[in-house]
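User: Before I run my own analysis I want an independent prediction to cross-check against. Here's the chain; please return only the structure tokens and, at the end, one sentence I can use as a sanity check.
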Amino acid sequence: MCIEQLGIADKGAMILSQPRRLALVLLGLYWPGFFILAHIPIPMAVRRAGMSDKTLHVLAYMLLAFLLGTAASPDRRLSWRRVRSWLVLVGVIGYGAVDELVQAKVGRTADLHDFIADVVGCCIAMGVLTLLPFWRGFAVVTAATIFALSNLTTANPAASFPAINAVFHVLAYGLFTVVWSRNLPSCVLSRAVGLKAVALRVSVPLALLVLTKASGRFLSRPLHAGETVLALVGIAATALALCFLSSAITNLRRKSMSGL
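Assistant: Structure tokens:
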């Protein structure tokens, strides 16, 4: 059994654990953009996508609460015995309420249903953080976001905004490949070389791609070969880059040890 699985190596005990550092960086990038988009007229691209604004509110606040919950908690899972967990929950819900009230003053409409969607998104994120450690939770949140953005629009994104759609498929599936790879125990990856290492990294991202595209058919969405190819490129390129990086780091460590 791996050391990580035994819980012997608890990096969460560090003052700034890796998940917390990453959450703070992503929060610094995400929250300002989220705030700006929430206080300007709805962009035309969003209108053309035809996605329910309630779905967007759920996704937006799910991501916000997930990042804030990770940044605030030093534990592997969110502990409701700590005051900070409740502060995050109340803080995000309170922010959603204030945000709706402020929107009424910038040419948008304050909507109770939007606020309820905010609360739902926040509760989903807090539930994920309660049940799962950061990297597994990050995989769930990322997969849910990709699935929703891919299937819950009424417009055809490949035709309406092809450039944005292409970038989304490459980057989104590439990101999910990174997050999934981080969930693989290091003792498993250390024994996997060549195609086996690549296969481990691409297995779940490929499953997500198949599930997303197959579900799209049931939701009456057309299957675009170009989107699938771009997603495959994102998955394969990321997996190969991670394998190359892992191999390079391993070789450097071996050289360092042999020089001692």
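Sanity check: The two ends are 29 Å apart (CA to CA).
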